[in-house]
Amino acid sequence: MIGLVGVCGWLCGCFYPPMEQPPLFKQTQVELAVPYDVAFEAVIAVAKQDKLALHAQDPSSGVIEAQARGFRARDADCGQVRTGTGKIAAMPTEDASAVFNFYIMPRGREGSTVTVQAVFSTPVDVPLHPPQSVTCVSLGVAEGRLLHQVEQMAATLHRPEFKTPTGSGAGGAGARL
Asked: Strands, E, within the chain: which ranges?
């Protein structure tokens, strides 16, 4: 009987959760030398550029939530699955998703801090078990890529310049009645 249970355990499969630790806070944050509103616009522009679905954008609190369909195996540790042939890494499926929460905070009048937290999830099939959804541990790769893109985008964005309309002064060409 004990041997039968051991063989079933070997053949049936097991799931082992991720062993990685989430990235350090300083790895998911960048300081920008641009005002808050420009940093906020840079994050939105990067999300649109990467075709992320924007689910929340609140300029008064500095929060932007964006979601991607799928992610790469190098972005997150999704644990391991034991099969009849040994342990293999649980891989993201086509139904996997990544949610990126951006937090933008002003740093004085001409600076901003952008922080991003990623949550990766994917269905995992364990032999002879129903499929289960797994929250994977970020490796910081996607966050680093997004923050780099935000830095680059912020460097190209500028506030619109106010220009006094020409000819609108008293007695000018625009003052006709």
From this structure: 14-16, 29-32, 53-58, 63-69, 76-77, 80-83, 86-89, 97-106, 112-124, 132-138
Measure the CA–CA gap between 151 and 52, rounded to whole angstroms.
17
Q: How far is CA 9 from CA 13, 24, 80, 85, 131, in A?
A: 6, 36, 15, 12, 17
Which amino acid makes up residue 90?
A: A
Residue 37 CA from chain centroid, whole number:
20
DSSP structure class, residue 110: S
pLDDT tens-place string over residues 1-26: 444 344 444 455 788 878 778 787 77
CATH of the domain at 136: 3.30.310.80
Could you report the per-residue pLDDT of 25-36, keeping only the tens digit for each?
Answer: 778 999 999 999
Q: Are 138 and 118 in contact (CB under 8 A)?
A: yes
**Is 49 contained in some domain?**
yes
- CA atoms within 13 Å, Cβ hemisphere of 82: 11
DSSP 22: P
Per-residue pLDDT of 137-162, as tens digits, reads 999 999 999 999 999 999 999 877 77
| 169, part of any domain | no
Instruction: Report the C-alpha gap between 58 and 22 in whole angstroms.
Output: 26
Determine the Cα–Cα distance for residues 154 and 103; give it in Å rounded to an integer. Answer: 15
